[in-house]
Amino acid sequence: MLHDAWAITDHPALLRRLLGRARDIRGEIDPRRNDHMAVILEAAAAFAIPFASLVGEVFRGFLKPDQRETLEDAVRMIVWGGREQYDFYNTLRRQVIAAKGSEIKDPLALPAWDQFLELLRAYLEAPHLSFQTPQVLRSAAMATISGQSSDTLARVHDRQLLHLALRLVLYLCQLQSFRLMLGTN
C-alpha cells in the first residue's frame, strides 16, 4: 500500500486503507531501529497525501466550519464517498455488531476521531501546508533510513509546516496500531 500511495487517486479509500494497514503492523514496530522509524515516516507521508486532499476539499467547501457537527458530517461524507456510502457502511457495521450480541451507539468514524478532527482543524489554519507535508515526511523517512534524520528536519525552515507534519505523525502513532511504539498498551 505504501509503494503506490503516491499514484492512487481515490483519496478517501486510500485514507481508510492506510489506517487499516497501520493496524496490520501492530507489535512489529521497534522504535530503536532506523528502518522501522523510516517505515512509520513513510506511512505518515503516504497518509498525508489523502489527508491533504481532505483538507483542501473541506477548506474549499466550508472555509473553516465553526460548528463541530458541520465539520464532522462533511468529513464523514468525504471519507466514505458520500451519504449513501456512509449510511451503508454505518448500517453494515451496526448489523455486524448486533449479530455478535453487542450494541453500538457511536456513529461510524475513523480511529481516534477526536484527534483526527483536531489535526484537520490545525491544518485548516494553513491548508497550503497540507500539500507540502507528504514531501517533508518522505524526505524525513529517506533521511532516517540513511542515518541523516537530524539534518533533514533542520532544513525545514517553515516551523508551522514542521509542527503540523509532526502532529500528523503523532496522530498515526497514537492509534491503537502504534501503541507499542509509544510504550503503552
A few lines on this structure:
66% of the residues lie in helices and 0% in strands. It is mostly helical and 185 residues long.
Offer a few descriptive terms.
single chain; mainly alpha; 0% strand; disordered C terminus
Describe this structure in words.
It is a single chain. This protein has a domain at about 10-65 and about 110-180. The two termini are about 25 Å apart. It has nine helices and no strands. The longest helix is centred in the first third of the chain and has 29 residues, at about 35-60. Mean pLDDT is about 85; it is low at about 175-185. Helices cover about 65% and strands about 0% of the residues. The chain is an all-alpha fold and about 180 residues long.
Q: Strands, helices and their partners?
A:
Layout: H1 11-24, H2 34-62, H3 68-79, H4 83-99, H5 113-124, H6 133-145, H7 149-154, H8 159-174, H9 179-182
Helix pairs in contact: 1-2, 2-3, 2-6, 2-8, 5-8, 6-8
End-to-end gap: 26 Å
Helical amount among residues, as a percent range?
A: 55-70%
Beta content comes to under 5%
Task: Give a short account of the largest sheet.
Answer: none
Total strands: 0
Which sequence of SSEs, written as H and E, runs from N to C?
HHHHHHHHH
Continuous helix count: 9
Structural class of the secondary elements? mainly alpha
- Overall morphology: globular
Summarize model confidence as the mean pLDDT.
Answer: 84
- Calculate Rg over CA atoms: 17 Å
Q: What are the segments in which pLDDT stays under 50 over at least 5 consecutive residues?
A: 176-185
